[in-house]
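Listing S7. Sequence submitted for prediction.
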Amino acid sequence: MIRTFLKERRSWLLVFVLLQLLALLIAYLDSAIPYSAMLYYVFLSTVLFTIFVIVRYPRETKFFKELEERKHDLDLTSLPEPGRPLEYLIDHNITEPIMELQEKSSAHHLRLEQEKDELLSWIHEVKTPLTAMHLIIDRVEDRELKAQLTHEWLRVHLLLDQQLHQKRMPFIENDLYVEKVELEPLLHSEINTLRSWCMQKGIGFDVDLSIPTVLSDAKWLGFILRQLLTNAVKYSEEGSDITVISREHKGQTNLQVIDRGRGIEARDLARIFEKGFTSTSRHHDTAATGMGLYLAKKSAAPLHIEIDVQSTPGSGASFTLTFPKANEFIEIQGV
């Protein structure tokens, strides 16, 4: 400990010694200053300095003792090698645990990637028996039973689809292919997927596409529309209609999905796109997952699509997709 203390304080120890030698040198060169008096001064100052060092030693070494007692602490750990300077000590004992954390983080990241790949593989594997199940359901003659089975099949299909896109979402930029997308066939495909559910609730669709095409990615735009249409069908009253309209507004294309269901409370409007949020008025609704609108909003961001909602409780809700202008989208993508 003494050795470490002296090495850490060697700079001001050296300064003190140099000052004493300088005083002796001046007395030696200047005959007006008695050399014996200067020797006496040097002796007294050395004694006082020694007493000062002895008094300060316990306080100064307390820091080093604490360092030795702290093992693998992220603030400061024990001295790796006796006699190292304080700068090395701090640098070594902070960077070493950081390196360990980085290694653990890399291992966790690799494990998560493996789990993600395994889950994606599992989802694709499940789709095969799910498709076979749909074909079997088509052969059921009992209409009521067939409708019930189809509805439950659709719920499983949509949940798997959500999970699949959720896992792909962190890499959505690598999956985008922007092109002119025909809205009519895309909408009809999504509506056809929900046909059995709509028939069960007696829900119809009124589609009016003044603007037939948009610049976007067909697959991810289809996923966004699937979430909005599913949400509209789920909360629409039986026998009502869902309206889908495309219009041009201020040089941009707007696509609206309007339902006539229970609507959204004003206090919930700001939160409906949050992950896991369902409702404050119907918090007991266990059928809602709170993921559909969250995933739709998150998918829309890389496509530079804005999603807005307007709703009056008891009168339904209107979700509006605002697509970017063609030249703005090209500039953003760096084309």
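Caption to Listing S7: primary sequence and predicted structure tokens for the chain studied. The longest helix spans residues 86-138. Residues 153 and 272 are 26 Å apart (CA to CA).
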